[in-house]
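1st attempt posting a full record on here, be nice pls
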Amino acid sequence: MTRIHPTAVVDPGAELGDGVEIGPYCIVGPKVRLGAHCRLLSHAVVDGRTDVGEGCTIYPFASVGTRTQDLKFRGGDPRAEIGPETVIREYVTISTATADGDVTRVGARCLLMANCHVAHDCVLEDEVILANSVALAGHVKVGRRATIGGLAAVHQFVRIGTEAFIGGLTKVTQDAPPYMLVDGNPAAVPAINRVGLQRRGYAPEAIEALGRAHRLLYRQGLNVSQALERIEAELSGPEIRQLVEFIRRSERGIIR
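the predicted structure (as tokens):
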């Protein structure tokens, strides 16, 4: 059964799934779709052409799907999508994309802690965690199960790899390779995300291979091309292949 508080403003055009709960003083726009069992706790705003997946929770004063802050916006119908079971905490802002038909996408089972900003055209894969006050500029891509620490800032068009861990207050202006630990300003890569990989059940041999790949990339005095040649010749496994592919596809270059 859908429950809407009498002080909430829900446009008749909005689509509400079974069991949706909309709390006091929330605003839901005409092009919004809320999946089953979504909860808007109070004072939350969901607007624009925004699709919120099943089981999401949006906390007070969050703003989801409002128009991009990009000054290049020229109208049209850009979108925002939130995957199922994602939690959006207080004062989070998630903008729509800039161009007509494009999308800002947050995956399933993500956690966006208080005061985070996800700018236009960002793509966050599943199970990403943004700690308090993380700022993502436009077109940032964050890989599955990456974690970004509090007050970190990520430059536009940067990619954060799968299972990467970005330390708090870090300034990220180039791509952060998957499975790596990134910290500082300027950012550096002192190690692999060993603790995170162990907690998530990666095999010891995979962790060891990634540690060796890190040493080749960052400790042997090799340039990126030389390091990749050594990694491909000496190491194997799906994590290594993903690491190499990520680096080869980098347009901004990786953090060194």
